[in-house]
Specification:
Cytidine Deaminase, domain 2; 5 helices
Length: 138
Amino acid sequence: MNPEYTQAIDFEQLRTLAREVAEKAYSPYSKVRVGAALLAEDGQVFTGCNVENASFGATLCAERTALGHAISAGQQQFTALAIWASPESLLMPCGICRQMLFEFSPELAIVIDSNGAGPKYTKLDELLPSGVKPSDLI
């Protein structure tokens, strides 16, 4: 990741927001709380937490909840994402979340944190090197 790119991003604030919103997670089945804080290009931050469902396929990840919040507010360009999860190990974004974020910001800077490990810094295009781009469908 380009150090100059990351210096302009307050990852500590994003990590704090992700950790705080994780406390609001609805996770009665896994007991894992996940929070995400997504930074838009204009400086606005959108948060989301995981929302589990008895029909597991209907469960929403924190990253997609934050993205939906941002899209609903009219944002489509993002610079950074912080993810925090309650287990001691780092939880990487699932494939669906990676692809959803890739649609808008393939080079998104990401920090992943947890109760006991991290932080780990990466970029979305490193986690999903061959994501499907809108231009692939035209």
